[in-house]
Design brief:
The chain is elongated. The chain is mainly β. The two termini are about 35 Å apart. The longest helix has 13 residues. It folds into 2 domains: about 40 residues, Ribbon (Complement Module, domain 1); about 100 residues, Beta Barrel (OB fold (Dihydrolipoamide Acetyltransferase, E2P)), CATH 2.40.50. The strands form 3 sheets. The chain has a 5-stranded mixed beta sheet, with no helix packed on it.
Length: about 150
Protein backbone atom coordinates (compact mmCIF):
# COMPACT_ATOMS: atom_id res chain seq x y z
CA UNK A 1 0.00 0.00 0.00
CA UNK A 2 1.35 3.41 -0.97
CA UNK A 3 2.34 5.74 1.92
CA UNK A 4 0.49 8.57 0.16
CA UNK A 5 -2.75 6.58 0.43
CA UNK A 6 -2.14 6.16 4.16
CA UNK A 7 -1.48 9.90 4.52
CA UNK A 8 -4.70 10.63 2.65
CA UNK A 9 -6.63 8.22 4.91
CA UNK A 10 -5.17 9.93 7.99
CA UNK A 11 -6.21 13.33 6.59
CA UNK A 12 -9.76 12.11 5.92
CA UNK A 13 -9.84 10.57 9.39
CA UNK A 14 -8.85 13.89 10.96
CA UNK A 15 -11.23 15.98 8.83
CA UNK A 16 -14.19 13.68 9.49
CA UNK A 17 -13.26 13.29 13.18
CA UNK A 18 -13.18 9.49 12.85
CA UNK A 19 -11.64 7.47 15.66
CA UNK A 20 -10.71 4.40 13.60
CA UNK A 21 -10.19 3.15 10.05
CA UNK A 22 -9.56 -0.57 9.46
CA UNK A 23 -8.72 -1.70 5.91
CA UNK A 24 -7.87 -5.08 4.37
CA UNK A 25 -6.56 -4.74 0.81
CA UNK A 26 -4.54 -7.13 -1.35
CA UNK A 27 -3.42 -9.16 1.67
CA UNK A 28 -2.36 -6.09 3.66
CA UNK A 29 -4.09 -5.00 6.85
CA UNK A 30 -3.96 -1.31 7.81
CA UNK A 31 -5.41 -0.06 11.08
CA UNK A 32 -5.47 3.67 11.79
CA UNK A 33 -6.64 4.72 15.24
CA UNK A 34 -6.82 8.17 16.81
CA UNK A 35 -5.91 8.34 20.47
CA UNK A 36 -7.47 10.79 22.92
CA UNK A 37 -5.10 13.54 21.80
CA UNK A 38 -6.20 13.04 18.16
CA UNK A 39 -2.84 11.78 16.93
CA UNK A 40 -3.21 9.10 14.27
CA UNK A 41 -1.29 5.87 15.00
CA UNK A 42 -0.35 3.17 12.48
CA UNK A 43 -0.68 -0.33 13.89
CA UNK A 44 -0.21 -4.03 13.07
CA UNK A 45 0.86 -4.57 9.53
CA UNK A 46 1.24 -8.37 9.25
CA UNK A 47 4.55 -10.06 8.42
CA UNK A 48 2.98 -11.30 5.18
CA UNK A 49 2.98 -7.73 3.88
CA UNK A 50 5.28 -7.40 0.84
CA UNK A 51 8.90 -6.94 1.88
CA UNK A 52 10.10 -4.82 -0.99
CA UNK A 53 8.95 -1.78 -2.88
CA UNK A 54 10.15 0.10 -5.91
CA UNK A 55 13.09 2.46 -5.57
CA UNK A 56 11.98 5.84 -4.32
CA UNK A 57 13.38 8.18 -6.90
CA UNK A 58 12.69 11.90 -6.86
CA UNK A 59 14.33 15.04 -8.07
CA UNK A 60 15.29 17.85 -5.71
CA UNK A 61 12.12 19.79 -4.93
CA UNK A 62 13.77 23.16 -4.39
CA UNK A 63 17.05 24.78 -5.25
CA UNK A 64 17.42 25.67 -1.53
CA UNK A 65 18.70 22.11 -0.89
CA UNK A 66 21.66 22.79 -3.15
CA UNK A 67 24.44 25.08 -1.95
CA UNK A 68 25.62 26.40 -5.32
CA UNK A 69 28.85 27.92 -3.96
CA UNK A 70 30.09 24.57 -2.71
CA UNK A 71 27.89 22.50 -5.07
CA UNK A 72 26.57 20.52 -2.09
CA UNK A 73 23.25 18.68 -1.97
CA UNK A 74 21.54 17.52 1.22
CA UNK A 75 19.54 14.37 0.57
CA UNK A 76 16.64 14.16 2.99
CA UNK A 77 14.32 11.32 3.93
CA UNK A 78 11.02 11.21 2.10
CA UNK A 79 9.56 8.73 4.61
CA UNK A 80 9.63 7.84 8.30
CA UNK A 81 11.24 4.53 9.22
CA UNK A 82 14.37 2.65 10.22
CA UNK A 83 17.49 3.47 8.21
CA UNK A 84 19.77 0.65 7.04
CA UNK A 85 23.10 1.54 5.46
CA UNK A 86 23.69 -2.05 4.20
CA UNK A 87 21.47 -4.72 2.64
CA UNK A 88 21.93 -6.98 5.67
CA UNK A 89 23.93 -7.17 8.91
CA UNK A 90 26.85 -9.04 7.31
CA UNK A 91 27.22 -6.87 4.20
CA UNK A 92 29.36 -3.80 3.69
CA UNK A 93 27.55 -0.43 3.67
CA UNK A 94 26.00 0.54 0.34
CA UNK A 95 27.99 3.81 0.43
CA UNK A 96 30.57 5.45 2.66
CA UNK A 97 32.18 8.87 2.82
CA UNK A 98 34.08 9.29 -0.45
CA UNK A 99 31.82 6.95 -2.47
CA UNK A 100 30.95 8.19 -5.95
CA UNK A 101 27.23 7.92 -6.70
CA UNK A 102 25.08 8.50 -9.74
CA UNK A 103 21.50 9.68 -9.63
CA UNK A 104 19.37 6.56 -9.12
CA UNK A 105 22.02 4.47 -7.29
CA UNK A 106 20.69 2.85 -4.11
CA UNK A 107 22.45 4.51 -1.18
CA UNK A 108 20.43 3.17 1.77
CA UNK A 109 17.25 1.33 2.72
CA UNK A 110 14.46 2.64 4.92
CA UNK A 111 12.07 0.15 6.46
CA UNK A 112 8.65 1.68 6.93
CA UNK A 113 5.59 -0.34 7.90
CA UNK A 114 7.43 -3.62 7.26
CA UNK A 115 8.29 -2.52 3.71
CA UNK A 116 11.94 -2.19 2.69
CA UNK A 117 12.32 0.91 0.51
CA UNK A 118 15.49 1.31 -1.56
CA UNK A 119 16.47 4.98 -1.36
CA UNK A 120 18.19 6.29 -4.47
CA UNK A 121 20.71 9.09 -4.81
CA UNK A 122 18.90 12.17 -6.08
CA UNK A 123 22.00 13.69 -7.70
CA UNK A 124 25.36 12.61 -9.13
CA UNK A 125 28.33 13.25 -6.86
CA UNK A 126 30.45 12.09 -3.95
CA UNK A 127 29.16 11.24 -0.48
CA UNK A 128 30.82 13.79 1.82
CA UNK A 129 28.81 13.10 4.97
CA UNK A 130 26.50 10.40 6.30
CA UNK A 131 24.17 12.19 8.69
CA UNK A 132 22.30 9.27 10.27
CA UNK A 133 23.44 6.03 11.88
CA UNK A 134 22.63 2.50 10.82
CA UNK A 135 19.34 1.24 12.33
CA UNK A 136 18.40 4.75 13.44
CA UNK A 137 14.78 5.82 13.13
CA UNK A 138 14.59 8.73 10.68
CA UNK A 139 11.86 11.30 10.23
CA UNK A 140 10.35 12.80 7.13
CA UNK A 141 12.63 15.61 5.95
CA UNK A 142 15.61 14.50 8.07
CA UNK A 143 19.00 14.99 6.40
CA UNK A 144 20.50 11.59 5.52
CA UNK A 145 23.48 12.36 3.27
CA UNK A 146 25.46 15.31 2.01
CA UNK A 147 26.50 14.82 -1.61
CA UNK A 148 28.99 17.08 -3.37
Amino acid sequence: MDIEIIRELAKIMSEQKLSKIDIDEDGAHILLEASNNSVVNFANVPQSFPTSAPVINSVPEQKSDINSAANVYEQKSKIVGTLYLATDSTSAPLVSVGSKVKKGDTICIIESMKILNDIAAEVDGTIVEICAKNEQIVDFGQKLFVIS
